[in-house]
Amino acid sequence: MRIRPSFLGATLLLVLGEYLYASGPASEEKAIARIENCLRQSDSSKRACADLNANIDVLIRAYRNGDKAVLSEIFKFSYLTSFFDDTLLSDTDGFLSAVNRLPTDRQNAIAAGVAGEQFRTLPKARFVAIKAALEAVPQNSPNRVLADTCLKALLEHNASLFVDYFPRDTFTGPGADLMTLWYSQVLYAFGEAPLWRDAHNAEETWRFTLMGAWGQSRTVTLSVHSSGAGSVRLKWRDRDPNGVGKVQVADSVGISADQIHVFLETLKHAQFWNAPPEIPDGGFDGAEWVLEGVREGRYHLVSRWCPGAFESQPSEVRAFAKACRLLLEYAGHPYKPDC
Asked: How high does pLDDT run on average in the chain?
């Protein structure tokens, strides 16, 4: 039997239509159903999630065409920085009001999404615009508290855009931008100021910052007084179930001139002042240890990945780790001898 061309064309159109319906989003309702099906899977790489981004795009287009109801579904994906920022800038009150209806943990997640992508800052112009929009929310607005939450996340994530914690070109390796971003985020969250800018007028100061791979971080600052004795101050932040926890600040602890002498002698073995700021020894996990020093008008920084964790590391690196641990011990917060 011969198949007439018109019949064949109609059949192909029908098959094509069924394929598009089965494999691609055709409506907001269908997109939401597919997203929910994906979210129910224990493994997001399964076939049910193959078209997740396409379905999210359907909802974003629907929102931009006036369907505000889809926001609740979009808010389940806190990494949509560009969409969140566009929406906040075009309708600040509407965006914040919608986020305000979410549970607190989701509000914090969206605030982090507004702040930028995980491993990069926002473009400077966009950062300035979002900061201005959040600061303009009236004090008597029901969205003021949320605006402050978003502003805090925005400033912390993009701290390297407006605070120079280190001299230019301190880091020059392939991960220089990421290191500057990450270190700046941690120091800004701790309320720390740059040490290098006023090194010529500052008293002798040492600051050790330990940055864990999963949000745990601590910083201890040693101030050496004219008497030869000194004091240490510890700040720390651990990860809580909903993300990065609150910064904790311990009382300052006085230490003796003898303790400071032990610390400085250990640094001599580490050859601190001659050590390069970075060496290509980073791993895929673990912690970064950063020690900054200001002494006799001079500033220097040394950063090492998991120093002293392996016997194969040079003796200078192990001595560096010992000096850093001494500061934690002086502050009453000894660190386990691991990475």
From this structure: 87
